[in-house]
Amino acid sequence: MIRLSQSDDAAAGRRSVAAFCVVEVKLAWCEPPITRRLLVPTAANLGWMHAVLQTAMGWEDEHLHVFRAGKICIGDPKRDEYQFTSGSASDEHTVTLADCIQSDLKRFEYVYDFGDTWKHQLVLKRMTKAMVPIEKRAVCLAGERACPPEDSGGFPGYMRFVEVLGNPEHPEHDELREWFDRPFDPEFFSLEKTNRFLARLPWPNVSPAALTRILRARDKSAT
């Protein structure tokens, strides 16, 4: 377990942690890179961080997920019973970013969709003095490129998706356009839209139903 009890904290004399940290997010294997740079309260548990990542990246929360660092697995026991019945995971709602920082767990993975296996490389960094945090909110500071569509087949499938969609002469172009029935620009990312919907995330926990409503509203919003 990553989380320490208060008595353990006191005994270890653990250092204090700033109220916010920067979370650098990069989707593994994708070139050119798909990235997000987030300012997040360190009091946030990883269940809330999951909601932040879904909202900021552009996912739709339709699949299972887990946070991983070596043999450490942190997930949602209500959605992924197997890992918890086997005793191999910690509850993401009981582990905060501050716990990760204090345990020197500053680099780890967020894996979404165990079929497509979208691996997000997360790096926790210090907030600079130039940043003005907004309490109990996550803020996207920067981002590059659109999120791949759900169920696009992981990195290889997404690369093919971009190739076929961008070539009207490809024999599979019309079929793919029918499957993905809305415009898609792999280079597009809206910082303003991302922050507008990050601001809607309830603190300190987001229910699956609330997250679904936010993500659906985000996807229906043109800008």
SSE topology:
Blueprint: H1 6-12, E1 20-27, E2 35-41, H2 46-57, E3 65-69, E4 72-75, H3 81-85, E5 90-91, H4 97-102, E6 107-112, E7 118-126, E8 139-144, H5 154-165, H6 173-179, H7 191-198, H8 208-220
Parallel strand pairs: 4-5
Antiparallel strand pairs: 1-2, 1-7, 2-8, 3-4, 3-6, 6-7
Helix pairs in contact: 2-7
What does this structure look like?
The chain is α+β, with helices and mostly antiparallel strands. It folds into two domains: 6-145 and 189-208, MM3350-like (Structural Genomics Hypothetical 15.5 Kd Protein In mrcA-pckA Intergenic Region, Chain A); 147-185, no CATH class. 31% of the residues lie in helices and 21% in strands. It is built from eight helices and eight strands, in the order αββαββαβαβββαααα. The protein has helices at residues 6-12, 46-57, 81-85, 97-102, 154-165, 173-179, 191-198, 208-220; strands at residues 20-27, 35-41, 65-69, 72-75, 90-91, 107-112, 118-126, 139-144. The chain has an eight-stranded mixed sheet with strand order 5-4-3-6-7-1-2-8. A hairpin with a 5-residue loop joins strand 6 and strand 7 (118-126). The chain is globular, with a radius of gyration of 18 Å. Residues 3-12 have low confidence and may be disordered.
